[in-house]
Amino acid sequence: MRAAALSPLQWGETLSAAPIASGRPIASAPVLVRRWRGVTAQIVQPALDHHYLTLHMGGPKRIRRRGEGGVARSEIAEGAYSMTPAGAAFDWNTEGPVDFAHVYLKPSAIDEVVAAEFDRDPRAVELRDTLGARDPLLEALLAALAASLAEPDRFGRLYWEGLLHTLVCRLLDRHSTLPSIGARAPQALAPYRVRRVSEFVEANLGGDVALADLAGAAGVSPFHFSRVFRRATGSAPYAFLIERRVERAKALLGDTALPLGEVAGACGFGSHSRFSMVFKRATGVSPGHWRARH
Predict the structure, then answer these.
(1) Is 141 helix (H, G, I), strand (E, B) or coil?
(2) How much is the average pLDDT of 32-42?
(3) Residue 132 backbone dihedrals phi, psi, to 5 degrees
(4) Model confidence at 273: pLDDT above 70
(5) What was the pLDDT predicted at 1?
(6) Alpha-carbon distances, residue 157 vs 5, 40, 160, 182, 266 (angstroms)
(7) 1, 101, 116, 190: which has the highest count of C-beta atoms within 10 A?
(8) How far apart are alpha carbons 10 and 43 in whole angstroms?
(9) pLDDT for residue 187 is more than 80
(10) What do you get for the CA distance between the two ends of the chain, in Å?
(11) Which pLDDT score, from 0 to 100, does residue 179 have?
(12) C-alpha separations of 232 from 42, 167, 218, 225 in Å
């Protein structure tokens, strides 16, 4: 009888060193990010109950992986990644720097996107394992998730939910049995639904707005919302939210004497520094300079 699959945390306890960082970009997210350095070159990886992606860091290396399907060898470039489906077991041997980040994804999160975004039966879709793959978008998404461990409060829930959704869609497109043609076309988002979203955003600019909140205001599935909203407005939900927060901040800076910290809080920015960075990026000047001019 095959042994029960381990959780990522259970497996981590068997490695020769603890992760140097571990966490989730959103507390409720179906993803766990862990950063490793200094473990032994030989790693035994049993079957896990999560899919996981490895972002290879620290420089080029040579990896030999033995398990289902035999032995695979690959020259791994800095920034390349590997995909390991849940239930697969491998022995890994690294010649070179042992430095990597793992992004663990719950199978249920993949299944939800398969059903809602692509209108397919999740039981008919499998992720394919790969070693040392290159894809600029996936690499950038994985690098952003790895960086989230150092700056967990830099962005809000909406940003991370959008990033994770993009990651899963790209993963399915590149490394699964999901057909690349015939996926369900995104539905249109009627003007009245866009208006509901806009009204919801204006009423909740000071809060931590989630993708599900916006989709609920529009009355559509969260898995379709990002694409149909972009099609209707020309902006991704996160960009739209930031734009409205900056516009609210301009109004408060010009019409009130509120301290900058209170303006930041009223507009949903997590900190004064975050507010200043986003505001300057959008307007070219700091909040203080904007107030002085207006």
Answers:
(1) helix
(2) 95
(3) 65, 40
(4) yes
(5) 47
(6) 30, 35, 5, 31, 17
(7) 101
(8) 14
(9) no
(10) 73
(11) 64
(12) 51, 22, 12, 10
Q: What is d(CA 26, CA 46) in angstroms, rounded to the nearest whole number?
A: 27
Q: Of 216, 110, 227, which Cα lies nearest the Cα of 162?
A: 227
Q: Which residues contact 83 (CB under 8 A, 6 or more apart)?
A: 51, 53, 54, 127, 128, 129, 130, 133, 171, 175
CA distance 50 to 47: 9
The string of pLDDT tens digits covering residues 151-170 is 777 778 888 888 999 999 99
**Domains delineated in the chain:** 8-174 (2.60.120.810), 191-293 (1.10.10.60)
Structure tokens at 288: 């203080």
Residue 9 Cα distances to 22, 90, 178, 250, angstroms: 10, 17, 29, 45
Torsion angle in degrees (nearest 10) through CA of 178, 182, 188, 194 = 10
Q: One-letter amino acid identity for 145?
A: L
Can you tell me the distance from the alpha carbon of 165 to that of 220, in angstroms, rounded to the nearest whole number?
16
Counting beta carbons within 10 angstroms of the beta carbon of residue 293, is it exposed (0 to 12), middle (13 to 18) or buried (19 or more)? Answer: exposed
The mean predicted confidence, pLDDT, of the chain is 90
Show the tokens assigned to 157.
């829930």
Residue 102: both structure tokens together: 């793992």
